[in-house]
Write a structure and sequence with these properties.
The structure is a single chain. This protein has 2 helices and no strands. The protein is mostly helical and about 50 residues long. It is elongated and about 60 Å long.
Amino acid sequence: MATSPWADEDRLLAALRDAVLAAAAVPPGFAEAGKSVFTWHDPDAAPARP
């Protein structure tokens, strides 16, 4: 039977710490730009005119 990689609490806590540190390293502007790509845009808005 295979054991879960999270069976060891120390390994789990180390992985969580690494994830938090990695998330903190992302610049806020970069995260906002990524979120805006997936933001719902108003389909009823008037199209842009050249």
